[in-house]
Amino acid sequence: MSPRSEKAQRNELLLKHLETLDWSISGFARRIAARCEAIHLPYMVVTSTVSRWCKGATPGDDLAAAACHVLSAALHQVVAPESLGWPSGTGLVAAQSLEYLDVSHAARMLSRLWALDAMGRRNVVQSAFSPSVFGPASREALVMPADAVIGGRGQHKVTAADIDLLDEQTQLYGKLDSQHGGGKFRGVFASMLDTHATPMLNGRFSARTGRRLYGSVVDAVLAMASMAYDDQLPGLAQRYDLQAMRLAQAIGDRARISRIHIHQARLAATQGGRADVLAHARSAVLAAEGAPPLVRAYACVTEARAWALNEQPDQVVMAVKRSREFFARAQHNTGPAWLEWFDLRELEGQAAWAFAVAGLVEQGRQALKEALALPADQTRDMVELLITEAELARLRGDSGGLAAVTQRASQASQHLMSRRLSERLARLKAGEPLRGF
């Protein structure tokens, strides 16, 4: 805390917030102390601490963030540190969340990213994508063994019910994301994770519980990363992926590591790095060796899409073939719960995209026919298929079909909050080739 200068004025807005909530200074101090304990901040917050803030003193970045979290949750509105004349520390979070360190660092960064995301702080990491940082993390995750110590020693005891709730919420928000777009409910999910998952990561649990907990948190974080990707926030999505990678590495979960590389391939495509897209896709295939066949099918169809962007049609055909073979084997095997959505329609839809980008019109039409023959109950998925269908029409020189399908895609997307799909539709209407991964 900085010392109060003689010219410091009372923090009238802070006092007004406390009056609105009917909180005493000591009550506010207790709530902040509880927040600090939950996220392992080594600070003691007492009545005199908050009293000095009310008189004009300025807390440090971490305490300012903790206090604003408490106020935001109680007032049901965003209370940013800057509104109280306090430092935000957001630039520091943007830099530190690109570091790949230990599990405690990952937990700390995720908590801060969730808090910022819940407050809609898009400007923090909106365009701060750094393609160079993921390579070293990828290599470490692929070659290093799982962490020797997984258990936690915090105050909050993590139960199976806690993890069940997290899994159910991740599944729920994943469905909402597919139906409404990544810009709709991401902030609400981030707030839930900050409130529920942060104390769990810093809680008390056995190694067995820790393995399940870290896996469930990875799934939730990757759902957040997908939402950020759909909302055209590559910097935020990258930071989520990076910290999720550290948790997946800690428990030696190669299947989830493969999934994170697939996410990174998609992000690299938004930046135009075709070589990076292929490197991440190939890393996904490598990580998936020994994983359930469904995971390998997902990795191989991603590799096909990467080869398509790199203008290698023969490789596209072979990668799709491998993906279909693994998918056929998966019918007799149990796949991971987080990949239940990857059905035949999804596989053939992604294969159709790869064939279209590679200029393989007939193969693309056949794959798309398979995809469209199956029910699609998610709006965004259907729009994606329609965009692929329009691209195939363009490649065939069918201007009438192109116009009709483009119109259907535009109508279907009207209620989606997806900046990514809006851009893809704009490119389609402008007659530009299909490139969005």
How are the secondary structure elements laid out?
Elements: H1 12-21, H2 25-38, H3 47-54, H4 61-75, H5 90-96, H6 103-118, H7 134-143, E1 152-153, H8 160-180, H9 186-201, E2 204-205, H10 207-230, H11 234-250, H12 254-270, H13 274-287, H14 293-309, H15 313-330, H16 344-357, H17 361-372, H18 379-396, H19 399-412, H20 419-429
Antiparallel strand pairs: 1-2
What is the straight-line distance between the termini? 46 Å
Biggest sheet details: 2 strands, antiparallel
Number of strands: 2
Mean pLDDT: 90
Number of helices: 20
Structure described in brief:
The protein contains 20 helices and two strands.
Describe the structure in your own words.
With 437 residues, this protein is mainly alpha-helical. 67% of the residues lie in helices and 1% in strands. The protein has 20 helices and 2 strands. The protein has a two-stranded antiparallel ribbon. Helix 2 packs across helix 3, helix 13 packs antiparallel against helix 14 and helix 18 runs antiparallel to helix 19. The longest helix has 24 residues. The protein is globular, with a radius of gyration of 24 Å. The N terminus is likely disordered.
